Amino acid sequence: GETIGILGGGQLGRMLAMAAARLGYRCHIYAPEADSVAAEVSAAATRAEYDYAAGLSAFAANCAVVTYEFENVPVAPLTALGAVPVLPHPRALETAQDRLTEKTFVTGLGGTPAPFAPVDSREDLRRAIATIGTPGILKTRRDGYDGKGQWRIMTPADADDLDLPDQPLIYEGFVHFSAEFSVIACRGADGAIVYYDSPHNRHKNGILDISAAPAPAAIEAQVPAARALAAKVAEALDYVGVLTLEFFATEAGPVFNEMAPRVHNSGHWTIEGAVTCQFENHIRAICGLPLGSPALAADAVEMRNLIGEDANDWAEILKDPANRLHLYGKGEARAGRKMGHVTRLAFDD
Ligand code: ATP
Ligand code: MG
Ligand code: MG
């Protein structure tokens, strides 16, 4: 089989490598960590710690195609690779890794994000709050995940008390939503798009807690408009692979939160809960193979993340034979760290 290069060494890379192995491919991981949980299940790994840009082309030279499971990698060296295809295209990565670029791009395609304004100074923040109002959320434009790099601003006085971090920021109006959901789509090399059932996503402390499909009717009603936006995003970026868009369901329709140019935590339920999981379809797409069915393989499915010490209860979780347990092989159960997840399928009688 051919070799697939994966940038990033976390659990998403691990699950991609496992799906790739099933199809006879070998994976090679490019990541800074010495103890990458993706490298453990892959053929080879290269540490990128010392010089990401310089090491990248030697890494890619051994690969038939390069993909990524992590957004916070420099784009320029990827664009310069030339001979080896990078899928999804680096432009998707570039768009998604900056919240300002991403929201501006999606607005241009007819999507509706929360009102937003860039913030590079205290004066910008005052002006943004005067225009958009409170409550709102100040976020770093880059590098945020699991709710990190975010500050809730309930009153203008909160903003005055804040020590502004020295990096580009964005202020967003707070969205009063009834629920959150995601669109998980996969676009093949031939342009065909498949959509998974949109899961209802619930968060705890800014981190995804539970994803469940099918979603309640109030979400289902907003899925067609959300999918139409995802299709526009995918086509505009000539996208190949799995693409995820997060939404708030509101009285006025779906409000776009953010996109991820990759497989997504809210799609982990697809491993058991769909005919073809998101990881396999991503591999199929970037390898130019036909996509598999995204259809639900049960009447309902629920995925719960195991965060930090939650994962220490794994023996307890296995006492229920209906639980499907996934542990990522991470050493230390630090608070807020994604250690694994549990999936349950349900069948109507
Ligand atoms: P992820 O791990 O999904 O990449 P992230 O760090 O990029 O997370 P966001 O998705 O921007 O963070 O925000 C995390 C959560 O905070 C959202 O899922 C939502 O629950 C809440 N949130 C974020 N922005 C807003 C907003 N403008 N209005 C209301 N709630 C919000
Ligand atoms: Mg995010
Ligand atoms: Mg998010």
UniProtKB/TrEMBL annotation:
State where ATP binds.
99, 139, 144-150, 172-175, 180, 203, 257-258
InterPro entries named among the record's database cross-references: ATP-grasp, ATP-grasp_carboxylate-amine, ATP_grasp_subdomain_1, PreATP-grasp_dom_sf, PurK, PurK_C, PurT/PurK_preATP-grasp, Rudment_hybrid_motif
What parts of the sequence cross the membrane?
none
Pathway(s) per entry: Purine metabolism; IMP biosynthesis via de novo pathway; 5-amino-1-(5-phospho-D-ribosyl)imidazole-4-carboxylate from 5-amino-1-(5-phospho-D-ribosyl)imidazole (N5-CAIR route): step 1/2
A single GO molecular-function term is: 5-(carboxyamino)imidazole ribonucleotide synthase activity
Lineage, top-rank taxon, reads Bacteria
**If you read the UniProt record, what top EC class would you report for this enzyme, in one word?**
ligase
Per UniProt, the keywords (alphabetical) are: ATP-binding, Ligase, Nucleotide-binding, Purine biosynthesis
Q: What is its EC number?
A: 6.3.4.18
Q: Tell me the ranges covered by the ATP-grasp domain, including all copies.
A: 103-287
The record lists the catalysed reaction(s) as: 5-amino-1-(5-phospho-beta-D-ribosyl)imidazole + hydrogencarbonate + ATP = 5-carboxyamino-1-(5-phospho-D-ribosyl)imidazole + ADP + phosphate + 2 H(+)
Signal peptide bounds: none
Matching entries from PANTHER family are given as: PHOSPHORIBOSYLAMINOIMIDAZOLE CARBOXYLASE, PURINE BIOSYNTHESIS PROTEIN 6/7, PUR6/7
| Record's subunit section | Homodimer.
Q: What family is this protein classified in?
A: Belongs to the PurK/PurT family.
Per its database record, what is this protein's job?
A: Catalyzes the ATP-dependent conversion of 5-aminoimidazole ribonucleotide (AIR) and HCO(3)- to N5-carboxyaminoimidazole ribonucleotide (N5-CAIR). Catalyzes the ATP-dependent conversion of 5-aminoimidazole ribonucleotide (AIR) and HCO(3)(-) to N5-carboxyaminoimidazole ribonucleotide (N5-CAIR).
Q: What is this protein called?
A: N5-carboxyaminoimidazole ribonucleotide synthase
